[in-house]
Amino acid sequence: LPAVTKALAQWVFSHPYNTKRPEVTVVKYLQPFQLSPETLQEVSARLRKDLLRGLGKHSHHKAPVKMLPTFVRATPDGTEKGDFLALDLGGTNFRVLHVRVEEEAQKVLKMDSQICAIPQEMMLGTGEQLFDHIATCLGDFLESHNLKGQTLPLGFTFSFPCEQLEIDKSILIRWTKGFNCSGVEGKDVVQLLKEAIHRRGDYHIGSVAMVNDTVGTMMSCGYKDQSCEIGMIIGTGTNACYMEEIKNVKRIEGEDGRMCINTEWGGFGDDGCLDDILTEFDVEVDKTSINPGVHIFEKMISGMYLGEIVRLVLVKMTKDKLLFKGQISEALGTRGLFETKFISEIEDGLENAKKILTELGLDWSLVDASVVRLVCDTISSRSAYLCAAALATLVNRIRNNRKLGHLKTTVGVDGTVYRKHPTFSSKLQKAVRLLAPQCDITFLVSEDGSGKGAAMVTAVAQRPAHQSRLLEESDGEDNEEEEEEEGQ
Ligand code: BGC
Fold first, then answer.
1. Measuring CA to CA, which residue among 394, 421, 414 is closest to residue 157?
2. Residue 383 maps to a domain
3. Atom number, ligand 1, closest to the C-alpha of residue 214
4. pTM of whole model > 0.85?
5. pLDDT at 466
6. How many domains would you assign to the chain?
7. In this structure, which of 89, 356, 411, 478 has its CB flanked by the most CB atoms within 10 Å?
8. pLDDT of 74
C-alpha cells in the first residue's frame, strides 16, 4: 500500500471493526486496485498480442484494439508552411482555430481560436444537429476573422475511433466518451461536415485532413523534436498512436516506409481479456455508462471515469460505516458528481481535501479526509501504471521492429489527467522505465496538438507521398499470431 498517513494509521488501528485484523479493512477495499509489476508485465504482454491482432488482415475485424491506419506517413521535417483552419471535437469543448505554419521561423502560430460549447443534449442528439452546429461555429469564426473569402485547407481533429480510408475519408466506428449522436456511426465524417457546410452555402473549405488527437499530439511535438514517433492522450479518454512499419500493417497495400497507427488502446479488454484485474467498481462504472462493454481499458484510466470509480469506493466504505459516520450526502450519492479534477486537488493537499469534502456536504473527520486521499492516490496510481504498461508495449514494439538493442525515442503527450494531476506523470514515467528498460524515453507535453498538430498533419498530407490503399476487409482464418516477432 502507498504510504499511510499518521491519521490513517490511527484510524486503521482504532476502528472497532478492525480490532482483530486492522489491516484487513484498507486492504479489502484498495488491494484489488494494486497491480504488481508482474501483473503490469502481463498486461503489457496481452496488449502486445492484441496489437498484432489489430494489424492483421484476417484478425483485424474481431480485434478489440483496432490499430487504425491514419494515412500519415511522415512526421514533420520542418519544411511545412501555410495557413490552415483546424476544428477540434472530442475533448471537453469544440474549438475552431486559424493556424499559421512558418517555415523560416520554424514556428506554428495560433492566430485565433474560438471555443463553442456543445450542450449535453447535442452530444446525445442527431448527427445532423451536431454537424450543423459545427458548421455554424466555423461560419461565425470565418465571418468574425474576415476569412470567409478564402478557401483554406482544414485539419479536423475528431477524437473518436474512425476507419480512415484516405486522409479525407473517415468512417466513425463508434462514439466514445459521453457522445452518442444518431446517424453518424458507419458514416464518413468528412462527408457529414461538407454536407452541413453545403446546407449553409455561404462559405467554402479547402482540402480536409482527418486527425485523431493522438496523431495531432505526435505531430505537434514532432515539429520540435523529430524523434517524436508516439502520441499519447490521457484526458477525458485515453489512446495512443505510433509510427509502424507499413509491411507490418497487413491491411495496407505496400511494403516501404512507415505509417502512423492509431491504436485505439481504450478498447483493450473489450473481449474480456482484462476481466481478471477489473474490480467490482470498474464493472459498475461500465454497466452504468452509455456504452457498456466498450472501451474497458479507457474506463479504468481516463478522466471521464476516474472520479466515478473513486465515488463508488467512497460510497461503499461509507455504507459499511467506515467513513463520514456512515452518512452519504446527496452529492456523494449522485453519479458523476465526484469529478476527476477533485482527485488531483485532493491529492495535492489535505486542505483541498477538506474543502472538497465540505462542498460535497459530507460530515468529515481528519481521518476521513486522509482515507479519501489514500483512495484517490490508489485509483490514480493504477491509471498511471496501466498507461505505463501500454506505453511500454509500444516502445518495445518499435525497438523490436527496428531490431535495436536500445531505443531512444520521444513521446508527445496531452490530456488533463496527465497535465493536471500532481504525481501522475512522474509515476507513469518511472513505471515505464521499469517495464521497458531498453528504451530511453523523453516525454514532451504537446502544445495544442489538436489545433496546431492538426494543421501540421494537413501540411504534411499535402506533401507528395507514396500512395497506400486500404485492402478489402477479409474474413479468413485468424492466423496472425504467426507474425509474432522474436525477442519481444
Ligand atoms: C477515442 C480516441 C481518442 C481518445 C482520447 C477515446 O475515447 O476513442 O479516438 O484518441 O479518446 O481523446
1. 414
2. no
3. 10
4. yes
5. 43
6. 1
7. 411
8. 82
Tens digit of each residue's pLDDT (9 = 90 or more) over 246-275 = 999 988 887 789 999 999 999 999 999 999
Please tell me the chain's helix, strand, coil percentages from 3-state DSSP, rounded to the nearest 5.
Answer: 45, 20, 35
Q: What region does 448 belong to: left with phi over 0, alpha with psi -120 to 50, or beta? A: left
Report the distance separating Cα 56 and Cα 331, nearest Å.
Answer: 47
Q: Which residues contact 228 (CB under 8 A, 6 or more apart)?
A: 75, 218, 221, 222, 409, 410, 411, 412, 444
Asked if residue 85 belongs to a domain, the reply is yes
For the purposes of burial, counting CB atoms within 10 Å of the CB of 406, is it exposed (0-12), middle (13-18) or buried (19 or more)? exposed
Counting ligand 1 atoms within 8 A of each CB, the residue from 219, 233, 265, 414 with the most, and so the one to mutate, is 233
Is 266 touching ligand 1 by the criterion CB < 6 Å?
A: yes
Q: Which of 429, 388, 368 is nearest to 300 (CA)?
A: 388
State which H helix or E strand residue 342 sits in.
Answer: helix 340-348
What range does the domain containing 210 cover?
A: 69-221+448-461
Is residue 372 one of the residues assigned to a domain?
no
Report the CATH number that the domain containing residue 205 is assigned in CATH.
Answer: 3.30.420.40
Q: What is the model's pLDDT at position 14?
A: 53
Active-site hit among 168, 213, 377, 448: 213
Question: Which residue ranges in the chain fall short of pLDDT 70?
Answer: 1-24, 26-27, 91-92, 104-106, 463-488
Q: Which grid cell is 251?
A: 491491411
Name 101's Cβ contacts closer than 8 Å, sequence gap at least 6.
80, 81, 82, 84, 107, 108, 109, 455, 456, 459
Helix count and strand count (H, E) for the chain: 16, 13
User: Which pLDDT belongs to residue 470?
Assistant: 63
What's the CA-to-centroid distance between 232 and ligand 1, angstroms?
10
Which of 153, 164, 246, 144 has its CA nearest to residue 210?
164
Whether 213 sits among the annotated catalytic residues: the reply is yes
Is 176 near ligand 1, meaning CB less than 6 Å away?
yes
